[in-house]
Amino acid sequence: MKNFIFGFLATIVLILIVPLIYLRLGAAEVRGDVRAPSWESRLTQFALHASVTRRAQRIQNPLPHSDEQLIAGGKMYLDGCAGCHGRPGRPARNRIAYAPPPEFAHVGTQYAEPELFWIVKHGIRRTGMSAYGSFYSDQQVWQLVEFVRQMNNLPPAVFDAIQPKRP
Amino acid sequence: MKKFLAGSLCAIIFLAIALAAYLGLGFMDVAADQRPSAREAGFMMASLQASVRRQAPQIQNPLANSDDTLIAGGKLYLNDCVGCHGEPGQPPSEFGATFYPPAPQFPSAGTQFSEAQIFWVAKNGIRLTGMYPQGASYSDSQLWSLAAFIRRARNLPPAVVKSIQPPPSK
User: Could you tell me the domains of chain B?
Assistant: First the structure.
């Protein structure tokens, strides 16, 4: 029994310490110009989704769904989000990055509105998704979220209304 | 010895289950609107520096060490990097602070990386941060001028600061 406990504890200590040594020696690959292996993306997407679902479960969208909200959200999206997440109606750029930003116009999103609201407000740690809670009001974030959810299925009037005006 | 191995195996299974439960139940904290603890930031930075030291080229900047190089880099910097990394002579970027980990503020905090290391980081990016690879957007020579500028961002010659300012808008 003593040996069993010793083996148990020694293994736990080893598993916790080895990654720290590995990192501290500079053995980790840090370059961001490759894609993460698919097992890693799947694991992190899974954990991220679980975490966001948990944190967003009491949030409810107070805004009515309307074209006005979509247009307001779409204008903000083109202004502040499209640089990384792509514009509706344009080809996907498929940039190579480690944790690449999702191109919503092509892949859509599996997150519900309250979950997107939480993500926009708080950001996602260890990605390029920063927290926007200090730059947008809650109402603006909801408008953005409605737009992102419907980006692949926009009413033509909304699509036209958000295009930048030609001088 | 057999019991030691049995204990070891149990520990591996135990940790795997604990990790799966922690991640699957959504306990991993993913919010970016907090600062990493000083311990985490210190450890991650030291690890990053160790990796960069190992992989980045150890060469001199091939561009001339001149104000012209700094000006060329400064113009690129003001165009594309200031949003997150801060503008010389201005308060730190609020936007850069909303990332986890936050973007380093070169004009106020400087950097510990050499020019070759800055070049390498800018070109390849840093995974699991907001620092996306820039190698597809800039030529090597542009990246070297950026590296020269960033290396000296805390201590720029006044002539350089003056000539990179955009002309006053009318």
Answer: 58-164 (1.10.760.10)
